[in-house]
Amino acid sequence: MKKLFYLLLIILAVASCTMQPTKKTAYSISVNLQGLNEGTVYLQKRVSGETIKLDSADAATPILFNGNIEMAEMYSIGIKDKRGSIPVFVEAADINIIGHIDSLRQAIITGSPAHDEYDAFNKQFNIFDERLRKIYGDYRTADQEQNEELKGQLEKQMEAIQVEQVEFTYKYVSENKASIVSSFIAYQNNYDFELTQLDSIASGFDPSINSSVYVQLLKERVATLQSVAIGKKYIDFTMNNTEDVPVQFSSLIKGKYTLIDFWAAWCGPCRGENPNVVAVYNDYKDKGFDVIGISLDQSKDKWLEAIEADKLTWNHLSDLKYWNSAAAKLYGVNSIPHSILIDGEGIIIAKNLRAEELRKKISELLD
Predict the structure, then answer these.
(1) Cβ(79)–Cβ(40) under 8 Å?
(2) pLDDT, tens digit, for every residue of 123-138?
(3) DSSP-based three-state secondary structure for 104
(4) 122: nearest Cα among 105, 137, 135
(5) Domains of the chain, with CATH numbers?
(6) pTM for this structure?
(7) Which residue in 284, 290, 241 sits closest to 261, CA to CA?
(8) Measured distance between the N- and C-terminal CA atoms of the chain, rounded to whole angstroms
(9) Which residue in 303, 314, 306, 307 sits closest to 253, CA to CA?
(10) pLDDT in tens, 300-324
(11) Are the beta carbons of 27 and 91 closer than 8 angstroms?
């Protein structure tokens, strides 16, 4: 009798295991865009700075994408030979996208709770952008009228709003630790946070989303930034110079205070900062200061033209891979201009010194 009782228990246990509902992983995305009568529509996502096409459909037929996904992830809907796309948080759900070919960003997306959460965040986040745009309009007027006093006041107002925006994002991420959308938002805005904040964010997510691609990317980002933090030694690499000759970065370090300057010919703020760097370089190059330019260009011709036009007479390196620049990845560069100052021993002592800040620092070191 006891044997029969235990046998029944085992059978019931097995049955209960097999009857557990399986986790849903299938998604379907229905796309209906007015004005789109022909062409190819893509389901795509960004991976390592590149857009990867996951699926395609003919616009002349009902557009429906089907697949499987373990955790919610940001994809987008793109159209061949059409600028712009529709960002959509994809998860195991039946998702509907309705919009117009001429206003992709205004498309209405339903069926994805993750996308609903993302939309709700953006409605609050965009309020800060609207405030900034209004003040920037006043700033441009003040600039045209050469009203320096008003410009200074407006700059302070914009800086204060930007601080509020970062605080809002940090608070949201900190309070939504089990949300994949929150991890995506943190990764998208990681450049706004101090390294200590970013480390706290990356390590603080709920274990249930640790395998999310965004949590993993955040942890990788923290590790990269820690490896090139102030107080660390520079990381060596090899890259071609302007004559296509491979040069080891360390061979250019001559025991001087050296500014590693990440820039590009297409970067307006970089070109605007170049005259300041040139002026400091010319004043201190004979006193122990050097500059090494690392370009994130794609066109060699435009790179060389910018070097000549801006009179950048120091050493230059580039692999012409745009944001996939190997050196930029080593140093965690995700916006330019970006600069790193190292001392004669190769130790990183400062970052992103611009205009008068750069001159003041070099003067303190060499005057």
Answers:
(1) yes
(2) 999 999 999 999 999 9
(3) helix
(4) 105
(5) 26-111 (2.60.40), 115-227 (no CATH), 238-366 (3.40.30.10)
(6) 0.82
(7) 290
(8) 96
(9) 314
(10) 999 999 999 999 999 999 999 999 9
(11) yes
Label residue 23 by pLDDT band (50, 70, 90).
Answer: low
Q: What are the tens digits of pLDDT across the range 227-281?
A: 999 999 999 999 999 999 999 999 999 899 999 999 999 999 999 999 999 999 9
CA angle 312, 313, 315 (to 5 degrees): 100
DSSP string, 178-209: T-HHHHHHHHHTGGGS-HHHHHHHHHHS-GGG
Report how far residue 213's alpha carbon sits from residue 99's, in angstroms, rounded to the nearest whole number.
28
8 Å CB contact between 256 and 286: no
Q: What three-state secondary structure class fits 174?
A: helix
User: What are the two backbone dihedrals, phi and then psi, of residue 176, each rounded to the nearest 5 degrees?
Assistant: -130, 65
Question: What burial letters (b/e) apply to 19-53, b meaning 16+ CB within 10 Å?
Answer: eeeeeeeebebbbebeebeeeebbbbbeeeeeeee
pLDDT digit string (tens) for 39-79?
Answer: 999 999 998 778 999 999 999 889 999 999 999 999 999 99
Over residues 87-118, the pLDDT tens digits come to 999 999 999 999 999 999 999 999 999 999 99
In the block, tokens 């360390």 appear at 250
Tell me the Ramachandran region of residue 305: left when phi exceeds 0, alpha when psi lies from -120 to 50, beta otherwise.
Answer: alpha
Burial of 55 (0-12, 13-18, 19+ CB in 10 A): middle
Mean pLDDT, the chain, integer: 91
Radius of gyration of the chain (CA): 26
Task: Look up residue 166 and give its two tokens.
Answer: 């970062």
Indicate the burial class of 358 (C-beta count within 10 angstroms; 0-12, 13-18, 19 or more). buried
